User: Fold this.
Amino acid sequence: MPRNPTDTPRPLSPQRSPNGARGPAGDSDMSRARLSWTWLSAADRRVRGDRGLTKVAVTSGAIFIIAGLIKFVFRHWELHAFRDFGLPWPAALEIFAGVLETLGGTLLIARRLIAPAAFLLAATMVVAVYSSGIIHGDVIPSLTLAPALLVAMLYLLARTLAPRPRPATHQ
Assistant:
C-alpha cells in the first residue's frame, strides 16, 4: 500500500529552526541557550582553574552537605527551629532547604553549575541570617557560620561571573 506523500516528514529548511520558528527568531532561542551554557561552563572552568576558588567551593560545599543532611537526620529538632523562626510552611521549607543545601553543596564540590548553585545558596543564607539570626537571636550558626557561607557564595559569584580583563594588544 503506497504511503501518502503528506505523511512523510519534510527536512527542515535553512529558514526553519527545530522549534518551527522561521528566520532569526528561532535561531535566537538556540543562540540564547548556547550562550547561557557557555557562560555557566566558563564560570565552572574558572573555579576548576583557580586553586583558591576550588578551596572555597569544596570547603563550603562540604559544609552545605552536612547542614543539608542534618535537616533530615535531626528532622524534629530542625522542624521545631523552623517553626520558632516564624517561617511560613516550616515543614516544606525545612525539606526544601535540606535538599537545596545538599544538592548545592554537591554541585560546589563537583565544581559544576557553580553560579546558579552559589546564587541559590547565598539566598538561603540571607534567609538564615535574617530569620534565625537577627529575628530569632540564634548566634550559632546563624550569625557565625551562615554569614561566612554567604560571603563565600558572594565571593564565588563575583569571581566567576565578573568579566575577565582582555589582554592588551601591542601594536
The chain has one domain: 26-161.
